[in-house]
């Protein structure tokens, strides 16, 4: 309960009066589904397949709870199943488990496909019949989903300003994530519309695969402009930009000790709007 300690006393009433509201404002597991892909090939019936699947999932949830990511495989008895889970690094451990659980509930829709992957807004989950842990791209399944453009961007100079902000945050997270253990957020404010971006490589990737994935994802994602947002959903990484601030962390202070205080400020600001 880090936030409770760093909070000043005269704010205690906020928690007493509106505990439910506050806990909602405090965190966001970003557990909404953005893309589920079931592999086209079905696994031939084998009594070991489903138990192996659950064995892998069970191990992943233990790793995710401790590290925000995990990978595991079961090779015997065959058929082999490889699994991987990854939360975006701005999620708290609790939010990560919420996001993972949501993906974990939806992924079995694909059974008995021999592979499947699901992208949620805060995490990723995949299983397959081979070791894919260092896979950067996959032309068959890599996907970019763009949203439509904002109505306020009717003016030509506003549009140019917006497009250049999108290019800037994408460039920024691409360059920063590669040298920052695979994670970065960026924002450009000022003017009529702000733009926010986040990049996350899976932690099983080496630096070269991470760079390769982010470069490809970024160049495709750039083509979403002047769309108000977009998500690049790649085999080895995730990148998103939006005009809404969708991440849980201050730019430039990721994982800092003030994370709790930052969340408190967000909570108080939301209360003022009531
Ligand atoms: C694209 O994104 C929208 C909004 O998040 C979602 O509703 C839609 O299902 C996505 N499309 C695909 C094919 O995943
Ligand atoms: C994985 O599944 C695919 C499709 O069913 C199959 O072609 C491939 O040989 C399998 N790979 C392994 C290592 O079992
Ligand atoms: C199917 O499962 C049995 C054990 O339940 C195992 O011995 C066998 O190798 C499996 N066959 C295939 C094709 O995976
Ligand atoms: C990314 O943006 C931050 C501020 O948001 C800035 O401090 C940093 O220098 C930028 N990095 C790159 C590589 O553009």
From TrEMBL:
Residue span, Gnk2-homologous domain: 31-132, 141-246
Protein name in UniProt: Gnk2-homologous domain-containing protein
Coiled coil: none
Annotated source species: Tripterygium wilfordii
Similarity comment text for this entry: Belongs to the cysteine-rich repeat secretory protein family. Plasmodesmata-located proteins (PDLD) subfamily.
Pfam families linked: Stress-antifung (PF01657)
Mode of membrane association: Single-pass type I membrane protein
Record's GO cellular component terms: plasma membrane; plasmodesma
Matches recorded under Gene3D superfamilies: Gnk2 domain, C-X8-C-X2-C motif (3.30.430.20)
């Amino acid at each position: 309960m880090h936030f409770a300690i760093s909070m000043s006393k005269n704010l205690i009433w906020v928690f007493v009066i509106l505990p439910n509201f506050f806990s909602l404002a405090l965190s966001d597991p970003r557990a909404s589904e953005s893309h589920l892909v079931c592999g086209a090939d079905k696994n031939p019936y084998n009594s070991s397949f489903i138990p192996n699947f659950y064995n892998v999932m069970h191990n992943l949830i233990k790793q995710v709870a401790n590290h925000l990511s995990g990978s595991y495989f079961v090779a015997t008895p065959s058929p082999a199943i490889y699994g991987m889970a990854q939360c975006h690094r701005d999620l708290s451990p609790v939010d990560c488990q919420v996001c993972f659980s949501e993906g974990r509930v939806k992924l079995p829709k694909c059974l008995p496909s021999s592979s499947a992957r699901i992208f949620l807004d805060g995490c990723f989950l995949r299983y397959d019949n081979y070791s894919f842990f260092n896979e950067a791209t996959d032309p068959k399944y890599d996907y970019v989903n763009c949203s439509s453009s904002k109505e306020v961007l009717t003016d030509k100079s506003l549009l140019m300003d917006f497009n250049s902000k999108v290019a800037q945050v994408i460039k920024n997270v691409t360059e920063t994530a590669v040298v920052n253990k695979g994670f970065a957020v960026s924002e450009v404010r000022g003017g009529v519309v702000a733009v926010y971006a986040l990049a996350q490589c899976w932690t099983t990737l080496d630096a070269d695969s991470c760079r390769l994935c982010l470069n490809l994802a970024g160049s495709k994602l750039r083509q979403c402009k002047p769309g108000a947002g977009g998500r690049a959903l790649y085999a080895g990484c995730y990148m998103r930009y939006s005009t809404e601030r969708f991440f849980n962390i201050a730019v430039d202070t990721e994982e800092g000790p003030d994370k709790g205080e930052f969340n408190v400020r967000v909570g108080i600001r939301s209360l003022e709007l009531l």
